[in-house]
Amino acid sequence: MTVAEPALAFRGVDKRYGETVAVEELSLVVDPGETFGFLGPNGAGKTTAIHLALGFVRPDRGRVEVFGHDVMATPRQVRRRVGVLPEGFDGYDRLTGREHVEFAAASKGVEAESSTLLDRVGLRGDADRRVASYSKGMRQRLLLAMALVGEPELLVLDEPATGLDPAGTARLREVIGAAVEDGATVFFSSHDLTQVEAVCDRVGILRDGRLVADETVETLRDSASARAVVDIRTGDAPTPLVDRLCRLDGVETVDVDGRSVSVSCSRDRISTVIDAIGESPVPIEGITTETSSLEEAFLDRTTGTEVVE
Ligand SMILES: Nc1ncnc2c1ncn2[C@@H]1O[C@H](COP(=O)(O)OP(=O)(O)OP(=O)(O)O)[C@@H](O)[C@H]1O
């Protein structure tokens, strides 16, 4: 019996650009058939990690493997098995959609059914128009068609939903679902939680180049449902209240915007927070409590405990 190699593995990877640490001590394994969401705010290091996975940049330390192959040692073999939707590529205005797909096939050394692929992303009727006349969303769909050339075993998608309208995002989800059904692994980088939640099995969260979470979407949801946000509207400057709230156990963030204060805490600390508000000398005009969403769970992991004013 052979044990399947991970589709993608970062093994203790560091990457710096001059003084900037883009990725630090990144260790992460994505198994074949998984749909992995790679989340993080702007500048967290997602694109750098993707460039490392594709062998576009060399790690300063550690190694990256695709299906067990070191991407720096065997870049060609690796790229043949990978389909990439890069961030920030708009295509070539003078070429048609079909020519883009044919170009992608030629550079990969494979045949491509351009009509089928363009149909899959909803561009069949526009296949022979020049990309100059494509909208942002159409360009993004075209990039997805190019990524699908050669039926890649690993699809690496960097912010694939950029510029897509709701129909486009639904189509993207459908295409990803079909690829996974055919046995592909998907590595999906995004700062858009809704997308990730809808599509992925597992999520890695990157913050300042470091992986701060690696868990299933279900676990992330559970940790979100164990949490709450208390929003307070004060009738006066809230500083004494904020000081008091910041000292409470179980309070994770206190955000202040004028006379609005938003406290994020574990659900079992809500009553303590409410008591502290009642005991504070600051007049209160209103309080609302919400249990937190996946989005808050994400933000907590990516911003940590802090006061934002
Ligand atoms: N070629 C480069 N030269 C210098 N610094 C770079 C380079 N590429 C990335 N960086 C820096 O590395 C850090 C990580 O950037 P990266 O683009 O990987 O983040 P990201 O998570 O993809 O962000 P975004 O969501 O904005 O695309 C940033 O501080 C960025 O300025």
TrEMBL record:
Q: Which family does it belong to?
A: Belongs to the ABC transporter superfamily.
List the residue ranges forming a coiled coil, or say none.
Answer: none
Per UniProt, residues of the ABC transporter domain are 8-233
Domain of life of the source: Archaea
Alphabetized PANTHER family for the sequence: ABC TRANSPORTER, ATP-BINDING PROTEIN
The signal sequence is none
Give this protein's Gene Ontology molecular function annotations: ATP binding
Q: Give one Pfam hit by family name.
A: ABC_tran
Q: What is this protein called?
A: ABC transporter ATP-binding protein
Gene3D superfamilies per the UniProt record, alphabetical? P-loop containing nucleotide triphosphate hydrolases (3.40.50.300)
Kindly indicate whether the keyword Transport belongs to this entry: yes
Protein keywords? ATP-binding, Nucleotide-binding, Transport
Q: Give a yes or no for keyword Ribosomal protein in this entry.
A: no
